[in-house]
Please model this.
Amino acid sequence: MSLDSVLGGVASHVREVLDRALEGRDVTVDDAVVLCGARGPSLHALVAVADHIRRAQVGDHVGYVVNRNVNFTNVCVKACRFCAFSRTRRSEEGYFLPPEEIVRRALEAQAFGATEVCIQAGLAPGVDAGFYLDLIRTLKAAAPALHVHAMSPEEVKFAAAGSGWSFRRVLEEMKAAGLGSLPGTSAEVLDDRVRARIAPGRISTAEWIDVVTTAHAIGLPTTSTIMYGHVETDVERMRHLDLLRSIQRETRGFTEFVPLSFVHEEAPMTLRRQLPDLRPGPTGDDVIRLYAISRLMLGDAIRNVQVSWVKDGMRQAQWLLSCGANDFGGTLMNESISTAAGASHGQMQTPSSLRRAIRDADRTPVERSTRYDVLRTFPRDREVDERDALDDVGDPEQVFGSYEALTRDERFRFRLPVAAP
Model:
């Protein structure tokens, strides 16, 4: 492939980096920062190269997983400046789902074809490692075949602190209880300068690395993420990607990389004007650039680059399949965190809607497991798709509930533990 056959007018410094990427050489942090400046024809060339490399690395299959999110509480002892989901322990909108309701939601999802339940929540007073262990055991007893994807690094740290355990002990006990994998969230940007500005008191970069590398060492895979478009610089973004690449080359434990656009509308640091240099999330071209650069930097190590239709919408998510991405994420059924922050793209996509977008991008739809095992491959050229159980759901908020409804439901109102100060 020659850049001459793609576009003319590519900036020479961008062209040099793209030529090296096409030769199979590592894109360094400095190289990646150059690509962050790609505009016009240079951006088109970057996208074309990312798509070419994607095809060589993972082919034309695009995966998705049928899953359900269960954010069992919004009560949190932290006050991250970007988070519009959390509530204080005395808030009238604080909720806490009991284990039997979490299990009910998981079984309902399984009846609709889900193979995964993703469990993440706030850090509520009174929750310790024992609570998480009991919850995972209860889930696996009720639905042994369902993959439990849970325990972000922040939650692992919280459980460890509340129980006096090491990160390793928490993870080993969780794995023995039936935990299948961890979300690599709470990463935001892995730079402590940035973290101190947007989430003071949150898990540090070193602690995040400790949790995920320990998980990988004991056979628990994790995802990897970045949350971008707020106060970070191009250099900090690219160092984040380079750090993930280094970890992956050492552990091989990341299943995927998921860029997450900062949703600013209802974020506390937007409403309170806490940071004068805060940006209102990434622009459309900024999203495209980051996905393309991610394929160039990470694709040889982390082969799966996942779109976030929740953050960016289905239309841009579909286009990102031509910018280096090869996975459409999950059906979700419930989505609370981005919705609370102001995202307006809904809380569920049916498998058939994902397949339609994949086919329209001239790719082959594949239903996959959490660990990226292929469960079913669908024809690329089918004009009328078969219906799935979720196609007949109707309004997902009416069937599966919504975040707003949870915050008003007296059945699940959060009550302070007796021993809480």
Observations:
- The chain has a mean pLDDT of 92.
- The radius of gyration is 21 Å.
- Strands lie at 61-65, 67-70, 116-119, 147-150, 222-228, 254-261, 327-330, 364-368, 374-377.
- Residues 60-411 form a domain with the TIM Barrel fold (CATH 3.20.20.70).
